[in-house]
Structure formats: structure tokens, C-alpha cells
């Protein structure tokens, strides 16, 4: 029978058998961010549309083509967040977080929404891990944020990931560069796509980020931003390179990186891979020193990055990275009869209070199907309860890996004895591993 409704294009389901991969990544990114002094922040899924137009930029692909905007009777227009930074800065301003002293460092894991072509690692609903640091103009802060991103990628086990960095300057030196781009692209105006023809006057740097193959070919020989940096921006970039070298973080200078959002200034960076096709950016970020002032706050330097979790997982799977094991059932209690079923309830409750993962029959199957189910869910131990076991107050605890059976009390000593069996099983497994290494 065909399904009446299927998931929307560009979305993905995470079924229980795959969720352990997400748990692995979410645990690593959260713990790494916290070790760097970042605290979690959570924001709404949608914001006033003007927030993204103002911050991301009206000439960007995100605003022009990709935003999901909705409205309800009597309300303003709202947009599902296409990225995390703008909403986080709004939340930090609105809630006075920036009054708590600098630097303020926050991280988040959230879903974002962009209406774009669906490709490997690029969905219309995607999930992003992001970090933002507010209050430091120092290139040391740039190096620190890059080091955090690299630490995450190292801890999940990725190989062959390259760091590309660039500087796109401050508003003053960037305006000179924009004029140089206008002069370069003007003779090619008619060859550019319609969108880039509009960008030529408003924001010619966006042409460098165009996905059109024809426009990319035209832009190949365009002027380089590094040739137009002012002395302060040049010094900032040189110090960043110095700090990254001191931290043993390898990098390449790529003068074509401009990032896709208008709020970036000075440092921009990307961690890239060739293992997921054309969409090879695993992490991207940079400075946005003018964004907070643009949103109504005081002039405050800030920087951060976003890391697409779908892309990260895709590369991890391609490279055979390790994931946390999905949690397995510690004990399955198979029952025969009403008395045994009632006893299983109290035993399960007692074991769960001590932190054990315990299951018992909920669909009134026979003993044989129950044992098959216990094997299917990977239960470490099984107890079979019937009238004889209830009367004697003891049962057999079966180790499903070895087949070994031991007696276990069904009374007050049950949880203690089961705990000891789990400890013995753990040490036995460890001894087997060590023996295999000798």
C-alpha cells in the first residue's frame, strides 16, 4: 500500500537505528565547545524577516532565493532561520548577554532552512553546530575560533581536511575593492547571469560567490581582495597567520573565499574536503565586526563559524570514522504467566532506578518469540521467569554472549547481584581485548 504522505523534498528522517551517529556528533561538538569556554544558547526557529534581510544581505542568494517566509493574519512576516548567527546576535542583544563582560562565547545546535537544490550533504532542512564569540577584535580570537573548529573535526576523526583562510577587509578598504570589481566585470555585464547583473552595482563581491559556471569562468581573473587591504587589515591577517603557525594549524591562503553572507569582515575561513562532491565545505566562518551595530547594538567586534552536521556525518561515514555504540539492553526479562509478568514489573523498576536498561514482554508473546526478540535487540543478559522461579525466589541469569548461566535472587539482593554480573562481564570483555593484543 502506497503512503498517503511522504516527507518533503530536501528533508531527512533520522530513524532509531541511525540516531546513535547523531548522538556521537552532538556529544563531541558540545563537549569540545564547553572545553573552549563556550556556553549553549537556544533561539526560536523563526524570526522577523527583516532580521535576515538586514544582516545576511538583500543581494545574497539566501535572501533572494532561499528563505522560507510565512505570515499569519495580523502578524508581520516571519522567516524560518536560514542560518544561526543573526538570531543568536539578536538574542544576545535582547537579553542583555553582552552586559556580562567580554568575551561572550556561545554555541548552539539547531535546524536551519533554505530552499535550494538538493545535493549530497545539502538539504533544505539541515542542522548546524555553530559558535560565536563577541567582544574581541584581536586576531588571537580568530585563531582561537579556528582552533575550536579544527579540534571538533580532529575529535570526530576526519582526515584530509584542509583549512583555507582569507581576509575580505574592513568596509573602507573593501569599497576600493568593490570599485575594482565593477571596473573588471562591467565589460562582461551582458555575459553575467541576471542575478549577477543586479549584483554588479549593489555588491559585486557576490559575483565571486555565484554558482554559475559561466560567471565563475569570467571571475577567474578578477582582482584579488588581498591587493586592496588597508594597513590595519593587512596587519590583522598577518598576525592570524602567525598565530595559526604557532598553534601548528596548517592552512592555505585562498583569496577567492568571500563567504555567502554580507555581514562578514576581515577574516573568513573554510574547512573543506573533496569527499562529498562539489559541496565540499564542512565548516565555514569568519568575522562580522559590524553586525551587532547593524542590529541596533553598540559597535562590537564578533566572529564565529557554522558547521553542517549532515555534511560532517557524510564525510565521517565515507572515511569510516568511529561512532559511539548504540545503547544496548542490559537485561531482558522473559515471562511465562501472569505471576511472572507481575514480578517482572517490580524487578524492572528496581533495576532501572539503578541506571540499567531493562526490557520485558509487552505484547504477550510466548517464550520462544520473547527469546528471539531479546537476541534481536542485543540484550546482554536474559532471565526467564515462570511459576517455578517465583516459588523458589531464584532464577537463572543467562549471559547471551557466552551462554553461561548463574543463579540470581528475585528478592532484595536482585539488583546487587545483577550489578556484579555486569561488572564481571565488563572485565571479562576487557581481558579478552587485552589478550587479543598480546
Description:
The strands form 3 sheets. This protein has an 8-stranded mixed β-sheet. It has a 5-stranded mixed β-sheet with strand order 13-12-14-15-16, with helices on both faces. Strands 2-4-3 form a 3-stranded antiparallel β-sheet. The chain is of the alpha+beta class and 438 residues long. Mean pLDDT is 91; it is low at 433-438. Strand 15 and strand 16 (405-409) form a beta hairpin. Helix content is 40%, strand content 19%. Helix 1 packs antiparallel against helix 5 and helix 5 (139-155) packs parallel to helix 9 (231-246). It is built from 15 helices and 16 strands. It has helices at 19-35, 49-56, 61-66, 85-94, 139-155, 171-185, 194-202, 213-219, 231-246, 291-294, 309-318, 338-353, 367-376, 387-392, 414-437, and strands spanning 39-40, 46-48, 69-70, 78-80, 104-113, 125-134, 162-167, 252-253, 265-272, 281-287, 302-308, 331-335, 358-360, 381-385, 394-399, 405-409. The protein has 2 domains: 19-170 and 230-318, 2-Layer Sandwich (BirA Bifunctional Protein, domain 2); 331-430, Rossmann fold, CATH 3.40.50.
Amino acid at each position: 500500500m502506497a503512503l498517503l504522505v511522504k516527507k518533503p523534498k530536501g528533508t531527512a528522517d533520522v530513524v532509531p537505528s541511525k540516531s546513535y551517529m547523531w548522538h556521537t556528533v552532538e556529544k563531541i561538538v558540545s563537549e569540545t565547545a564547553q572545553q573552549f569556554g563556550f556556553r549553549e544558547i537556544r533561539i526560536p526557529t523563526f524570526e522577523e524577516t527583516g532580521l535576515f534581510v538586514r544582516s545576511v544581505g538583500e543581494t545574497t542568494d539566501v535572501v533572494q532565493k532561499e528563505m522560507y517566509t510565512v505570515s499569519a493574519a495580523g502578524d508581520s512576516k516571519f522567516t524560518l532561520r536560514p542560518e544561526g548567527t543573526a538570531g543568536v546576535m539578536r538574542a544576545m542583544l535582547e537579553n542583555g548577554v553582552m552586559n556580562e563582560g567580554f568575551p561572550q562565547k556561545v554555541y548552539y545546535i539547531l535546524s536551519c532552512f533554505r530552499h535550494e537544490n538538493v545535493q549530497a550533504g545539502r538539504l533544505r532542512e539541515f542542522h548546524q553546530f555553530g559558535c560565536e564569540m563577541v567582544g574581541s577584535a584581536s586576531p588571537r580570537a580568530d585563531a582561537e575560533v579556528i582552533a575550536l573548529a579544527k579540534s571538533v573535526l580532529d575529535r570526530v576523526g576526519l582526515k584530509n581536511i584542509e583549512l583555507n583562510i582569507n581576509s575580505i577587509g574592513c568596509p573602507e578598504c573593501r569599497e576600493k575593492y568593490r570599485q575594482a570589481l565593477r571596473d573588471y566585470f562591467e565589460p562582461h555585464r551582458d555575459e553575467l547571469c541576471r542575478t549577477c547583473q543586479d549584483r554588479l552595482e549593489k555588491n559585486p563581491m557576490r559575483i565571486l560567490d555565484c554558482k554559475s559556471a559561466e560567471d565563475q569562468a569570467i571571475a577567474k581573473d578578477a582582482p584579488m581582495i588581498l591587493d586592496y587591504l588597508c594597513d590595519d587589515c593587512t596587519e590583522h591577517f598577518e598576525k592570524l597567520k602567525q598565530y595559526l603557525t604557532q598553534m601548528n594549524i596548517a592552512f592555505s591562503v585562498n583569496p577567492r573565499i568571500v563567504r555567502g553572507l554580507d555581514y562578514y569582515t576581515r577574516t573568513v575561513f573554510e574547512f573543506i574536503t573533496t569527499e562529498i562532491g562539489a559541496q565540499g565545505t564542512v565548516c565555514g566562518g569568519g568575522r562580522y565586526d559590524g553586525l551587532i551595530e547593524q542590529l541596533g547594538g553598540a559597535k562590537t567586534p564578533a566572529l564565529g563559524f557554522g558547521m553542517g552536521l549532515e555534511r560532517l556525518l557524510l564525510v565521517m561515514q565515507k572515511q569510516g570514522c568511529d561512532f559511539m555504540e548504540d545503547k544496548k539492553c542490559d537485561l531482558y526479562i522473559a515471562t511465562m504467566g501472569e505471576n511472572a509478568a507481575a514480578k517482572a514489573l517490580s524487578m524492572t523498576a528496581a533495576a532501572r532506578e539503578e541506571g540499567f536498561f531493562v526490557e520485558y514482554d509487552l505484547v504477550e508473546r510466548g517464550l520462544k518469540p520473547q527469546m528471539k526478540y531479546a537476541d534481536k535487540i542485543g540484550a546482554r543478559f536474559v532471565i526467564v521467569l515462570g511459576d517455578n522461579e517465583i516459588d523458589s525466589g531464584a532464577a537463572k541469569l543467562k549471559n547471551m554472549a557466552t551462554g553461561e548461566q548463574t543463579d540470581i535472587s528475585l528478592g532484595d539482593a536482585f539488583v546487587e547481584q545483577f550489578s556484579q554480573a555486569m561488572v564481571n562481564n565488563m572485565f571479562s570483555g576487557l581481558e579478552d581485548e587485552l589478550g587479543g593484543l598480546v
